[in-house]
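Narrative of activities, Objective 1.

The group set out to show that a structural description can be obtained from nothing but a protein's sequence at a throughput compatible with the screening campaign. Below is one input-output pair from the validation batch, recorded exactly as produced.
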Amino acid sequence: MKKIILAAVILAAVAGIGWFYQKHRAEQEIALVLYGNVDIREVNLGFRVAGRLARLVYDEGDKIKQGEVIAELDAEPYRNQAASAAAQVKSMRERLKLRETGNRPQEIAQAKSLVREREAVAANAKRLFQRSENTLAIKGISTQDRDNAEASYSEAEARLTSARQSLALLEAGFRVEDIAQAKADLAQAEAALASAELQVKDAVLTAPSDGVILTRAQEAGAILPAGTTVFSLSLQNPVWVRAYVHEPDLGQLHPGTQVDVYTDSRPKQPYHGQIGFISPRAEFTPKSVETTELRTALVYRLRIIVTNPDDGLRQGMPVTVKLATAAPASPIAAKTL
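Output recorded for this entry:
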């Protein structure tokens, strides 16, 4: 009886081990495996303005941090332009202030005095004219004398009118159109100053992101046109993996799916990442795929964002991407185009 029980226990244990093995094997068989390549972005850095290259701070292979100064132009011509533009702005501001403030009180007082003087002259000329007319009536003066008195009176009235109009202009100040023109001139001068100051800033080249200098294309003293490449920079972030997935496996993936990324140099220490983009358009498998049966298959490109990149990931490096799926899948191979 004991032998029977022992045999039954052994059989149960063997069955349990077999069941566990089959389950583990099935889980391994349904693991979706993708093959891809590391895709690191590169950027060519240059000055937005032309000038003589005065200084280069870094060389090929150097690591740089975002915001660090990596090269400078001779900015003296641009500083001179900025100083001239600043002086022009000051002049335009004073001109606008003059237009808005109006004329000085002393000028208005002087114009009022002139009006009073012209009024007195006109009043005296009027009296002389009236006397000449009365005297002409009794034949006491000639007609010419009377005409001379009338002309003097008319001239005095005209000069009085001119003085009053000048006073009115001084009291009214400048026209609205004059003030608007002064404001427009000031705005134009301020825009020129902002442009000149921006050119001074553009004479200093800073790193747009953390990265590694790949190429140093120029040397100090070179005369550079605007936009000439000075450095080529390999960005540290983001680091992506480009891979391709077959349409039958597409339903098993979605943006945000967590994956492990393996390299040949550290097969037991995977990087971590997640799927960030799945192309909505199908395309043929790249010609770099090794197997003949896959070369004509339609696939979908996907991008995997590596969340813990380091110096171990290099541009174009082949990697293996693994993740567990809910249905059988076919491994594929792809390389970055």
